[in-house]
Design a protein that fits this description.
The chain is 41% helix and 18% strand. By secondary structure, the chain is an alpha/beta fold.
């Protein structure tokens, strides 16, 4: 049996989009290959065992990751490089036939490209360097240099997979890279079935919910500003992230009694929140053109109305949905108008949206396509 090394920053027990994508690929490939997953621990979480036999054909190698603040780009870049080198160091001790690298750790691209030999596949979940701000000359220069480094690194891989047509277009049209295939993100079959079967209870208290990362690019303060004006609307922000404390502090300063922060919740608890929600909200700032938040697949599976603030690939997806509104990101007045519009929607649950996910975005079906990539 041939062996595949899988390098990733995210894996179990961490619950994240990256983890779910890697796990679905690994489970499918492990039917035919021996899989070594070389990954980082969650920040600040210490794994006592550096090697864990997950299944008979999947072995996990953990590298403990310290808890650092990634809000600064330079600091985040420094740690990305350090931990990328550690992932590569372990991978080079494990003999394999092929190597798969999945990012968002963009510095894995050039480092793996030059430091790991043999057949290499790059799985890109986000073109982070494309989304960098160009607000001044220094930022523009950093973006130009990083783009050059990433493109040279990408060309060291034998095959590239991406998550959406926009990323594929950038790689082929701007970078001149032809060996690209789209393997979209999605939602696990069991999660989709749990959400699509769930009966949504009419909530007498109109509720807007966000579930996901409370980070910088989400710019969720706009949701709190909307809550300041819509006192009769309940707002729920589920999750954690670098901006969680700042958002909670902002809500406290403005005495927003209609806003709650449950923090991280279990999957079972999240389903119950979905069952008692009126509208689902998501946002990414205008720099995130290529990003397609996987949370939108989950939202769509629920069937509730969706408000999305953003541009680019995610905007195109939401515009194709029923009972969905796309607005300019980080605009309080426009967000308030969208919420008021959702109040008037009579058709609460969209079976059309659920059918779209079932037909195109079930993760297990998408993962089968990774076998074609390996064979090529």
């Amino acid at each position: 049996m041939q062996t595949i090394n899988f390098l990733t920053a995210h894996f179990l027990p961490e619950n994240s989009v990256g983890t779910n994508r890697v796990l679905s690929f690994a489970n499918e490939l492990s039917k035919f290959y021996q899989i070594n997953i070389i990954c980082l621990s969650e920040k600040g979480v210490i794994h006592k065992k550096e090697k864990v036999d997950y299944t008979k054909t999947i072995t996990i190698y953990y590298i403990n990751q310290q808890n650092y603040n990634g809000k600064s780009f330079l600091k985040r870049a420094y740690y990305e490089i350090i931990y990328s080198l550690k992932l590569i160091e372990v991978a080079n001790t494990l003999i394999c036939d092929k190597t798969i690298v999945t990012i968002p750790f963009m510095f894995l691209i050039p480092l793996v490209g030059y430091k790991i030999l043999g057949y290499k596949i790059l799985d890109i979940r986000d073109l982070q360097w494309e989304d960098l701000s160009e607000k001044n000359i220094l930022n523009k220069l950093i973006k130009i240099v990083l783009t050059m480094i990433m493109v040279h690194g990408i060309k060291k891989f034998n095959y590239i997979t991406v998550t959406n047509p926009y990323e594929s277009h950038i790689l082929s049209e701007q970078y001149g890279i032809d060996n690209v295939q789209i393997l979209s993100n999605g939602i696990d079959k069991n999660r989709f079935e749990a959400l699509s079967r769930k009966n949504i209870q009419p909530n007498p208290h109109f509720t807007v919910m966000y579930a996901g990362t409370l980070g910088i690019v989400q710019e969720l303060r706009v949701l709190l500003d909307a809550a300041r004006y819509l006192k009769d609307v309940k707002f729920i922000l589920i999750g954690d992230g670098s901006e969680a404390k700042n958002l909670q502090k902002y809500a406290k300063i403005h005495q927003l009694s209609n806003v709650t922060f449950p923090g991280k919740v279990t999957w079972e608890e999240l389903i119950e929140y979905y069952s008692n929600t009126s509208v689902l909200y998501a946002q990414l700032n205008e720099d995130c053109v290529s990003a397609m938040p996987s949370k939108l697949y989950e939202y769509t599976s629920v069937g509730l109305p969706i408000i999305y603030g953003g541009i680019g690939q995610a905007k195109s997806f939401v515009e194709s949905l029923e009972n969905a509104i796309v607005i300019k990101p980080n605009d309080t007045n426009v967000l308030i108008q969208a919420i008021e519009k959702c109040r008037k929607m009579s058709n609460t649950i969209s079976d059309k949206n659920r059918a779209l996910i079932k037909e195109n975005y079930i993760r297990e079906g998408i993962a089968i396509k990774i076998l074609d990539v390996i064979c090529r």
